[in-house]
Structures are given as C-alpha cells and as structure tokens.
Amino acid sequence: MPEQSPHPLPGSPADSQPPPRPCALLLSGAQVVTVDDERTVYTSGSVAVDGDRIVDVGPAREVEARWRPRRTVDCRGRAILPGFTDAHTHLFQSFARGIGDGEPIRPWLNHFMWPYAVHLDAEDALTAVRLGAVEAARAGITTVVDHHYAPTDPETVLAVADAIEEVGLRGAVARGMTGDRTKIADARGLPDALYRHGTAEELELTRQCMAARGPDARVRVWPAPLNLSYGDRDLVRGAVALAREHGVRWHTHCSEGAGDPLSYLEAHGVRPVTWLAREDLLDARATLAHAVWLDEEETAAVGAAGAGVAHNPCSNAYLASGTMPWLPLREAGTVVALGTDGPSAGGRQDMFEVMKQTLFAQRLASLDPAGVRCEDVLEAATRDGARYAGVRDAGAVRPGALADLVVVDLSGTAVQPVHRAVSALVYAARAGDVVMTLVGGRVVYEDGHCPGIDEEALGARARERAARLVERAGFGPLTVPWRHRERRLGRTS
C-alpha cells in the first residue's frame, strides 16, 4: 500500500482528523514495555508527555500523528519502561561503599555499620545522601524509600528529604527510630550512641518531621522503627498510629537474619510478625524490609494484611542472610517490591542487578528455573514498587499515569540481539545503559548528567568527607587489600 500523501485533498478521511495537539515531550520509536494492565509491549512505540503526566502511548506512527511536541527525543534502539522504585535503601551509607566486607549481619552491624552511623555528622550525611540520590537517578530509579537513621534530628531529616527532592526523585524518608532500649538490644551489643531519644520523644520528633512534609510533598516522612526484632514494642505501636494519622506507610527492618525471630520469640513468647498481626498493627501501611525468615503463619498474616515486603537479594547475598520466600509471600497476597539496601551492602544501587539477582537466588533456592520469570521481577521493580511506596498513578506507561520513566539503551554489544525486550532488560542491561530518567515529566538524568547538579564537585566533596570519616571511625584497616583474606587464613603478614 503506498504511503499517504502528506497533503491530503479536502474532504478526504485524513482531512477530517483533528490537528495535532501540543505536548512538552515526545519519546519516539522505542520498544515500550508498558507494564500496564494488559502488559502491552510496543516494538516501535512512542510516548507523549505533557506536564507531569503521560498523555499518550502506542505505535509510533499513530502517536506522532496526534501530537506536536516542543521536544522530540529519538529513542530508536532503546527501551522505555516505568521508573524503578527502590523499596529499601540507605542513601547515607554511600560513604561506606566497598568496605566492611566478609561478615554476617550481626558482626557487620556491630563492627562496621553502627560505628559508621555513630561517627557520621549532619554534613557527612547530606553529602552522602546527595551522592546516593544522584546514583539512583542515573540508574533509572524514580522513587526511593530511604531508611535514614544517622543523624535523625528533625533538621537533618528534613534536609535529607530536601536533598532527594533537589535531585528530582520522589518517595519517602523513613525516619529510623530506636526509642527505649530493650533487653534484646543489650544482648546484641547495640551502642548507646544510637539511643539518642526515648520512645515518647522519638515519636514526637517524627511527628514534627511528618507535619513539616504534608500530603503535597514529593518526598514524605514515614515513621520507621529501626528493627522490629529488637525494638521497643510501644515504639512500634506509636509508629503505626502515626502512619494511620498522617495517611502514609510505616517501615522497619524485619527478620533479616535467622536469629531475629528466634531472639524475639525467646524474649516475648511470640514471633515478631505474629505479634504485629495479633496486635492489629499489621496492615496495608506496613512495609517490611527483608522478611527473609518468616514462618508459614507469618507469611500468611503478611499477605492477609496486604502489607508490603522489600526484597533485597543483593544485600542478602552479600551478608549471607538467606533467601526470602518469594513465591509463598506473593501467593499469600503480599505486595513484593525490590530494594538495593543502599550502596554499602552490595556496592551499587542498580535495580537491573537486583532484578537479575532475584531470579537467580530464587531459582537456586527452589531448583526451579520456571518458578520466577523475568516478567515477575520487572513488575516487582516497577508497578508493585509504586504500590508498595503508595505512589498513585505510577508504575506503568499508560495515559494519565505520572511521567516517571526510564529510557534504556539496548544497542550495546552486551545486549544485542534483542529478541525480547523484557528479557534483555532483566538479564543483560545494567544501570550504565540508562540514558534518560524522568520524574513527573522532569528530566532528572540525561546522557551522563543530572541537570542542575555539579556532580564533579559533589564527588570531590564526598571523597574528602569519606576519607575523614574513615580516619575518624578507625576504618583504615578495612581499606587494606587482602587483609581479610589473610586474617581468615590465619596469616599475620
């Protein structure tokens, strides 16, 4: 069939079509992986954006005939997909990247992470958060749940939220709270310096932060008891009440290590998630990080409540913590999202790596290569992540949705040939293949740069402050190559 004339005669069907409408941006000619309700994939599709919303998506020629964009980006050889949600991260830990390796969770916390957190000052934290937020934007992450627990004074917490917004991301700062010290915390040797405030004061400080960032804020503040297994029970009760009062989620570490539910059972006569359910504290606002060591009753309770779980396979492997029961949780009705657990326990905030590691870990655990597929983990990283974080109208490329989008280059030799876009994205692509990230229609990363961010100056400041922190905290020996290997083998020289 010959191509239609660009100048149809008056009265012809083409002449009766409405003229193209204006829009801000047209992403043209990509493989569009919508993750919409029908899971549509357009092999040559376009996405039109105006304001903070997607206004059209479909076959390239059809979409482009309907719009007159102020800017068009040629996306041939690329994929467009919903932005990723990092459901559990610690942006302040970016200075800890690459040290502290080779210990399981409890010694790692006691020997490394708690001292790191204690020695971090406010300016260190803000610089580390900015660095982590830029890394996230460059990796196609549009929403973060940042579990922040060092330092936690309201001024710093609100400045952390500001810093995330300045980079252009959306999400939540989950303010880590310790509250009154418990016997389990004593037994685990948590440092006194982590216990800055009692339970009542922690809840009041969190309330102040939440009030300062109301419903219109792009980055909210959530209450976040630091860890369910050794935290004060009244702190958890208060956190849930705050979340319900302010209409947000609440967040906590949950049963990450094998000993977590056992120590709670020994102290209280009940497992931690079972206690939440019995106390009517487990609800759809609960977002539980890790949830590796749940029994059948707890798994069923999490699903029945419609709660969310952030699966962190890279950090679970890094710390040898175990493998989360993916299929039982999903089958029970749990909203399972994916998280990086920050830059310190695994090295990168790379959701491509997280998706791939999820597949591999689950297949190794079940010995079933068909039990979890690449489509499942892509959904967890996008649409399920948006549900988990409480971001409405996100997680899918469809008209009316928030224009939280990531454009990924699929033309590299490590990705070619692309037989199936979803498979290529999960198995072959990496964070470095991201060429553009949009949040609410705003370009927050494009072709190597985050607009408005002096990344060179940020990197220099981060290196300087991190070096001072390593010296101040006495982490120098952790930076020596092969030191841990020689110690493990019994060598001293």
UniProtKB/TrEMBL annotation:
<dbReference type="InterPro" id="IPR011059">
    <property type="entry name" value="Metal-dep_hydrolase_composite"/>
</dbReference>
<feature type="domain" description="Amidohydrolase-related">
    <location>
        <begin position="80"/>
        <end position="444"/>
    </location>
</feature>
<dbReference type="InterPro" id="IPR050287">
    <property type="entry name" value="MTA/SAH_deaminase"/>
</dbReference>
<protein>
    <submittedName>
        <fullName>Amidohydrolase family protein</fullName>
    </submittedName>
</protein>
<dbReference type="InterPro" id="IPR006680">
    <property type="entry name" value="Amidohydro-rel"/>
</dbReference>
<dbReference type="InterPro" id="IPR032466">
    <property type="entry name" value="Metal_Hydrolase"/>
</dbReference>
<dbReference type="Pfam" id="PF01979">
    <property type="entry name" value="Amidohydro_1"/>
</dbReference>
<keyword id="KW-0378">Hydrolase</keyword>
<feature type="region of interest" description="Disordered">
    <location>
        <begin position="1"/>
        <end position="21"/>
    </location>
</feature>
